[in-house]
Amino acid sequence: MPHAGISPPSEPPPLPGTIRLGISSCLLGQKVRYDGGDKHDPYINGTLARFFEFVPVCPEMAIGLGVPRAPIHLVGDPAAPRAVGVHNPDLDVTDRLTDYGRTMGRELAATISGYILKSRSPSCGMERVKLYRDGVSSRKGVGLYARALMTAQPLLPVEEEERLGDPVLRENFIERVFAYRRWQEAVAAGLTARSLVEFHAAHKLALMAHGPAPYRKLGRLVADAGARPLQELADEYAQGFMAALKRRATRKGHANVLMHLMGYLKKHLDSADKAELLELIEAYRLGQLPLIAPITLLKHHFRRFPDPYVAQQVYLNPHPAELMLRDWI
User: Fold this and answer.
1) What tens digit of pLDDT does each residue of 118-142 get?
2) What DSSP string describes 234-288?
């Protein structure tokens, strides 16, 4: 099995210039649902489509189920559910959906940087899918295609369209997509001990916002660069890095980073500038302002007083400003 963090020895195809996301076809308005309909999502098609190229996949169509088709649902043990027909239990597509998820996990691994799944789907739902057991339903299921895909690509940022309506979850997903893309580019360029150290250095403040423990743990890992087998170290780092970013950054975590950044300006700002910046940071911490407010002021000061360490950090510019994610968190 290929390592999770580094591509196998054979040369992977070059990464495309545009960041590509796998996506459930129905979310793009393709009429592939069991009833011949779609689940066109305005945010995905209106905002995200400006920044990403989508790779549409409908696993149910791909395994040979037509449109319209008999609906399926999950039954049995949450740890090993079956996907069977709602009206015809003899229709069992469990193995076909699972196999297709594994296949797409392998085929798309080198060229996509994230995936948006259709929520509540017995094939594509990543969590809380309705599951029936002994005549009783619960929300303990995971879509079979989604489960196989996420198992095959554990580092891949994955989210559901309904959860993207939550500003914090949306910011977290987009941050992870861009971070994972940078990791893919580092690997594609030929990862070395030096480039691993540089990658970590550029993400220090971003990691700090997600919690001090993973930040310290990854720092200790990178300290071993050059002393441990590179592939082993990079795989462990990639797993820890993506897991750290998956933890939601809190206002307290962001406020700590903002204060840390302010420290690089203490010799340059007068008392009024310092008081203004402190006021914005505190107002953000208390939930009175969005993150973009102190970030904008910090960027203004760093344009006046550049710092080489801060300049290499992705924290102040983790994704295109036009996404306006930090206006809401």
Assistant:
1) 999 999 999 999 999 998 999 999 9
2) HHHHHHHHHHHHHSPPPHHHHHHHHHHHHHTTTTT--HHHHHHHHHHHHHHHTTS
